[in-house]
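Subject: Sanity check before I submit

Could someone independently write out the structure tokens for this chain? I want to compare against mine line by line before I put it in a report. The sequence has 318 residues.
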Amino acid sequence: MTIAMRHTKGWSGADLEKLARDAKRNARRRAGQTVTDADILNAMPPVRSFTAEERFRIALHEVGHALVGTILNVGNLVGIRIDTWRSEKSSGMSVGAASFDSLLPMQPLESDFEGLISMLLGGVVAERLVLGGHSAAAGGDASSDLPRITALATMMENMFGFGDHMLADATDSNSLTNIGALPANVGLAVRARVDACFRRTMGLLEPRTDVLVSVAHSLAEEEEMTSSRFLKLVADAERRHESCGIPKGGSAMSGAASPPPTSSKNTGLESIISFEAELAGEQSRPSLRPRKVARGAGGPKPRKKVEFIKSSNDDRDK
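---
Independent answer below. Compare away.
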């Protein structure tokens, strides 16, 4: 049932009704009293399984998101997953996800948006570093990585006063990715901001390419993993490289356009390694992120559950 739900996201009501009728018909043909998962799957359109190379690319993309998000403390990583096949009826391009609890605080600062943009760029940067380029799955509909990045950078410049002026345009969401409709100076500022975040993300992942590859191979084989599993694999890979005389990756703030305050952000991969020590002694599932210092007298940032990142556009649940 989980597989069927994952691959019917975005279907119309009529399509779902037809699937239900066909599944019931399959159940009657085998003289069954109830509809089973097999009846539903047999009623679905043909699917294509991904090759090993495709699975690795998808896994690499999602690990890139998860690693950057973890280093920059962007929300709380819940887990990551990839799909291993795709329905011919799928309208989107999403084939994986890195799921986070709340990517932004209730009152986000400029640094919060920059961290989110950097995390969204993690998939593209990971593909470029390891495979020499990224796939078209990073773009497409409004829910995919690149349109989200463009919309966020546009809002920073043109709505929230984070640019070189304090003027705000109450732009509707449909025009946030229409760079051509923006004044030339705003379009250039949006591009410069995204470029700065791209350099920041490249600075985070390039020294950790071996870690990316190692964890991506595991995800390609396992298909999904919890944040605890992800953090352990990252810590193990870091230790292996240190034992070979390879130092840890550079500063997490490398290439940052506007780094978050170090007093409230744990920006080193050391947080992952130290966090691993908690995993062995915890009977229940541990906090998905290293503990963070409370923000001001009000305590920690309130968070709302969000499922994010598409390695692609989606018919999936970044």
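---
OP: Matches mine. For the report I'm noting this point. The CA atoms of residues 200 and 255 lie 4 Å apart.
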